[in-house]
Amino acid sequence: MNAPATFDPQAFRAALGTFTTGVTIITTRTAEGEPIGITANSFNSVSLNPPLVLWSLAKNARSLPAFSSERHWNVHVLAAEQEALSGRFAAQGSDKFAGVELDDGIGPAPLLPDCTARFQCRTAFQYEGGDHVIFVGEVLAFDSSGHAPLVFQSGQYALAARKPRTELRLAAPPPPECSYTEDLLGYLLGRAHYQMLDTLRRLLAGQQLDEQQFFILSILCIRDHLTLDEINAFVGYTGLKVSAETLQALQQQDLIACEQDAAGTERYVMTALGREASLHQIALAKAVEAEVADKLDAGDVMALKVLLKRLVAATDPGLPDLWAAR
Amino acid sequence: MNAPATFDPQAFRAALGTFTTGVTIITTRTAEGEPIGITANSFNSVSLNPPLVLWSLAKNARSLPAFSSERHWNVHVLAAEQEALSGRFAAQGSDKFAGVELDDGIGPAPLLPDCTARFQCRTAFQYEGGDHVIFVGEVLAFDSSGHAPLVFQSGQYALAARKPRTELRLAAPPPPECSYTEDLLGYLLGRAHYQMLDTLRRLLAGQQLDEQQFFILSILCIRDHLTLDEINAFVGYTGLKVSAETLQALQQQDLIACEQDAAGTERYVMTALGREASLHQIALAKAVEAEVADKLDAGDVMALKVLLKRLVAATDPGLPDLWAAR
Asked: Fewer CB within 10 A of the terminal residue: chain A, N end or C end?
């Protein structure tokens, strides 16, 4: 616990940063009509009736004169896809509005498109706030788009992983002596994976294919002309070991073909029929994903993908890059 | 776009709610010394030097007189585990402090334990804010714990799924004609699952077990006395079909045993050796998870689990409850 005299500014900033926020861009125009805008996360709502919102601006900000004299400004709650825009408006000097097509607002302040929500305001109060000025604005107009919002926490961009409104249990609580629970990450990952695959498996059965053959086709769909060993280098981490017989079965179904390269090495390629079967599988995988996004909300699916990518990167056994150019 | 005269309060509230926030509990004492506290997400930082923070309180709040007259109050940035506390301090009437052991603060205001961060403040300014009063407080002391913070967005609790500081790609960008990309949810789930399982597989090999036998032991570890059909009902969604021969192999390794119930039905139970093997597997699964939590941060792992549970619930083909009491 620190007393103000000994406040470590970095520690204080870090403690404040644990309070999660959205990210906004706030825009106005200078007296000369030049559009200006800054990234801010000090926004918050104040009052419903009258409709008021607030944010704070550093007293040494170059944009302070403009915001102090121009009474109209717009708050843009940024969408998850607008991280780059956030970075651009947080930096100094560049032409922040280059290439941005503005929407028409009710006042002179620039109105950015594709945000989660927008509040068009006029200054109601300017309050003293230490090294910042607190701007309280009356909201004259607002709109929102349904885009998942960008989140900021402890200096990092983030997405919200929303909790269910009531506690979600997949199964009855385990007996106390049972150390295998539904909260085990490995269980949740496995169950999620196999349930997603389950739908696909029905299509595979119709195509007279098993999971192993599906993996092989997926790999050849991304990268052709692979040897049996190369296929196994890509698929090995799943625990499957592809045999020459499995490849022969796919050849007999005319889904893949075997070619000899200049060195006489056998390499496998997709046939037109194989490519078609693979496209059907990808289409179904995408349909399953769309169904999930419908139930979970698009923002939550984005958050899930971010976390899965980080997990995959953190547990990567050093797999070769399937998509790398050759 | 709405003009203020036609503001739909519900739509306005919903648009404001898209701005993500943390969740705080703000406490003080009445003139009589009674502890009071409310849940608020209108908190934000204002100034570093002097250290100032702000939040807004409805003018019709029952706690307004106390906050207006008592100059000391504490802001608690709630941790993910404090969702129930948030609910309790958001509700009216109950004894909010019942069972809460308070920490010692520098002033009279109650100081709650186990938060992500805490700011002990004294009122610097009280500002007019429509139907709310804006309290600006000077921070006299603060601390933070490293607990992952609770998040609030569009009326729902959430956790932050933090993005990597630089864009994370697992592989080179796919060629434009390739519709199979690393962003496919099914690919990410499969890769995450198999990579996590990969570590476990090395232990299984040492135990002379394959994946199928691992699944069987896991199921019998949770629920004993199952028939072959019942085992298959639990494991079927993984695509595996357990045969009598597989069970016989486990019997020969003395990991499971077969018993006849009163009706003469064959039911499988774990042996002491099987239970031991299973406990080793669970211990390793937990160690793998701890390693991941180390790399991803505990809060992100919590967020991942929430999302995976929601995904599993959304794609559940109607699996029987493995943990249900009988």
From this structure: C
